[in-house]
Amino acid sequence: MSYLELQHVSKTIKQIPVLEDVNLSLVQGKIYGFVGENGSGKTMLFRAILGFIKTSGTISIAGQKVKLNQKLPVNTGTIIETPHFMASSTGWENLKYLASLNHLASDEDILAAMKVFGLDQKRNLKVKQYSLGMRQQLAIIQSFMEGQELLILDEPTNGLDDKSVDRFIKLMKDLRDQGKTILISSHERALIEKIADETFEMAAGHCKALK
Ligand SMILES: Nc1ncnc2c1ncn2[C@@H]1O[C@H](COP(=O)(O)OP(=O)(O)OP(=O)(O)O)[C@@H](O)[C@H]1O
User: Fold this and answer.
1) What does residue 169 show for φ and ψ, rounded to 5 degrees?
2) SS3 state at 82
3) Terminal-to-terminal C-alpha distance of the chain
4) Which residues form a coiled coil (predicted)?
5) What does pTM read for this prediction?
6) Structure ipTM
């Protein structure tokens, strides 16, 4: 049965179609990759799935409709464009604050998630002292530390070095093996080839399956 379903999803901004009749039927427990050139609609598609923009057509997750700017049907971890954190607080304080919104991640969960990237060693540094890659690691950590069952990650490896990308790939496959459903967009086809069980290509708002 389909877990995440899009039926005839379209979006036009200022007379320009940015999503054109997108139809998707995704099952639980897989990694789905989305490739496409700059401006092809990857971010728009993810924003639509998250209920951040109004579209025509229907989007449903776990059998429930996604509604504009409302809580999603399932706990969903996201990275959409440049992640924002409180720069004058430490990495740890930022994650503790985010965890306090849902009360789902314990201190142990947060620490275990930080350890995936070795960021636990830097947890008491202020985010403004973090490198670009460390900030991206923090964004990845917040997206899965609560055991979120759906992950929607837009260009999640931006700024990561090779070792961190390898850790990210292993992490995603481990989460997939635990039954999580993961959508990843990237303009790097090589990453998507390594990580995705199924791949879609976005081009001028159209979305087509590649394998
Ligand atoms: N706020 C906006 N107003 C008008 N058009 C927009 C807006 N945001 C995005 N677009 C347009 O929507 C289209 C899809 O953009 P989108 O950000 O989804 O592309 P993308 O595939 O994620 O690109 P990138 O790889 O550069 O992140 C582009 O033509 C873009 O110009």
Assistant:
1) -60, -45
2) coil
3) 19
4) none
5) 0.95
6) 0.93
